[in-house]
Amino acid sequence: MLGIDVILQKANVLASRCAGDRVPDNLLSMVLAHLRRHHDVKATLKLLRDLPNSPFARRTSSTERQLRRLGEHVSEAISSNKASWEEAAWIVGWARRLVQSYASGSRVNR
User: Fold this and answer.
1) Which residues contact 98 (CB under 8 A, 6 or more apart)?
2) Which residues are CB-neighbours of 87 under 8 A, at least 6 positions away?
3) How confident is the model at residue 81 (pLDDT cuts 50, 70, 90)?
4) What is the average per-residue pLDDT within 34-61?
5) CB crowding 64-93: b at 16 or more within 10 Å, else e
6) Mind spelling out the 3-state secondary structure of 35-92?
7) Averaged over 38-45, what is the pLDDT?
8) pLDDT exceeds cutoff 90 at 7
9) Residue 97 in contact with residue 8, Cβ under 8 Å?
10) Dist. CA 58–CA 73, nearest whole Å
11) CA gap 105, 100 in Å, rounded
12) pLDDT at position 96, please?
């Protein structure tokens, strides 16, 4: 079981990486919704691996890159410690909130 400090640290790193790669927060919302609906980290990671090759990825010229980066960053954040679906949802949910601050150039205090 991950402690709240670890969850917030992982969320902070995930948010800063997503903001740096210009991954919109609505994509993190999609990941969070999938985790909450299916309660399955492995299924969510599979979705993230498959999305860059889907027709959805060709919506704009940057969508495929954003989806690829999203998959890399989320996978790193939630699979390294074998997080439960609840812990993964906490990490992604907090990252979704924080990424807006990083994207706007604001500093987030820890």
Assistant:
1) 11, 12, 15, 16, 108
2) 1, 2, 7, 78
3) low
4) 94
5) bebbbbbbbbbeebbeeeebebebbbbbbb
6) HHHHCCHHHHHHHHHHHHHCHHHHCCCCHHHHHHHHHHHHHHHHHCCCCCHHHHHHHH
7) 96
8) yes
9) no
10) 20
11) 9
12) 96
Beta carbons within 8 Å of 55's beta carbon, 6+ residues apart: none
**In this model, does residue 59 exceed pLDDT 90?**
no
Please compute, for residue 18, the number of CA atoms within 13 A of its CA located in the half-sphere on the CB side.
32
Neighbours of 4 (CB within 10 A): 9
* Site of tokens 């812990």: 87
